[in-house]
Design goal:
By secondary structure, this protein is an alpha/beta fold. The protein has helices spanning 9-26, 41-54, 86-93, 115-128, 165-176, 195-199, 214-222, 247-250; strands at 2-6, 31-34, 62-65, 67-69, 105-106, 134-137, 159-162, 189-192, 203-208, 240-246. It has a single domain, classed as Rossmann fold. The protein is globular, with a radius of gyration of 17 Å. The two termini are 14 Å apart. Bound molecules: 2-phosphoglycolic acid (PGA). Residues 37-39, 138-140, 144, 174 line the site of 2-phosphoglycolic acid.
């Protein structure tokens, strides 16, 4: 595992985007795994800049997102701040800014009639695409990887997961509050790739920013490998893993 510490969020984002861009140039038909949340936004905007100013070509790229809230999906008739789906997030922050083909992008479908069946199908779609070449990841305040909340097995596959109160609270502060949604009305369930699904990707690019993540990322990287902190699975990742932190997020690491 490679751990890189950058001075600030902007530099973290630039480096993450350049790693993704190098892969897209090397393998134009690569399969990218995307994450949502506040952390990757700078990376996605930098990829959009590389597309616009340097012609970075996403026309042959396929993508799979880690997760989506159960019960909602993108509704372009709503203003962005009222549409909290991760499909909308990806559209606004990345997909509409680059030339990826909409039919090549995949976000778990939050309105699937039969979510369990959908999850099996999602796993099959990833396999049929040849697997994920590079998976972008973050870490939740409770240590989650995608929406694999504490206690999720390292054998877990794409499935329906109940969100912890910590996750609901964090997402409320980061996104829902602005939209005027009350906590009671927030989604409590999600569709998420499992830990085993993530561990099968060929490369992992984990992004961690801000002092609020300092304690939990220290546990994930330097503490025991445990389902209490599902992101600690990065320590058993067999592919090529890179973790990029800004200084604030890295402040509690002992070995740096
Ligand atoms: P964040 O979310 O980027 O908004 O902090 C990360 C996560 O929950 O995995």
């Amino acid at each position: 595992m490679k751990i890189i510490i950058k001075d600030n969020y902007q530099q973290l984002s630039k480096l993450a985007a350049s790693i993704i861009a190098d892969l897209v140039r090397e393998k134009p038909n690569c399969v990218l795994g995307f994450a949502t949340g506040a952390t990757p936004i700078g990376t996605y905007h930098e990829l959009a800049r590389l597309h616009k100013e340097e012609g970075l070509d996403f026309s042959k790229v396929t993508s799979f997102n880690l997760d989506e809230y159960l019960g909602i999906t993108m509704d372009l008739k709503l203003p962005y701040e009222l549409d909290q789906s991760y499909a909308r997030f990806m559209y606004e922050e990345l997909f509409k800014r680059i030339n990826i083909k909409p039919e090549n992008t995949h976000v778990p479908f939050g309105l699937a009639q039969n979510p369990e069946e959908f999850c099996i199908e999602y796993e099959k779609m990833i396999k049929d695409a040849g697997g994920i070449d590079l998976q972008v990841l973050g870490i939740g305040g409770d240590g989650h990887w995608a929406f694999n909340e504490p206690g999720s097995s390292f054998d877990s596959r794409t499935r329906v997961e109940y969100l912890t109160q910590k996750t609901v609270d964090d997402n409320y502060e980061a996104f829902y509050k602005k939209a005027g949604v009350s906590k009671e009305d927030m989604p409590r369930k999600a569709l998420t790739m499992g830990i085993a699904t993530i561990l099968e990707s060929r490369r992992a690019l984990m992004l961690v920013s801000g002092s609020s993540k300092a304690d939990i990322i220290a546990k994930a990287l330097e503490g025991p490998v445990t389902t209490d902190v599902t992101a600690s699975a990065i320590q058993i990742y067999k592919g090529d893993a890179t973790v990029i932190l800004d200084k604030a997020a890295a402040s509690k690491l002992k070995n740096f």
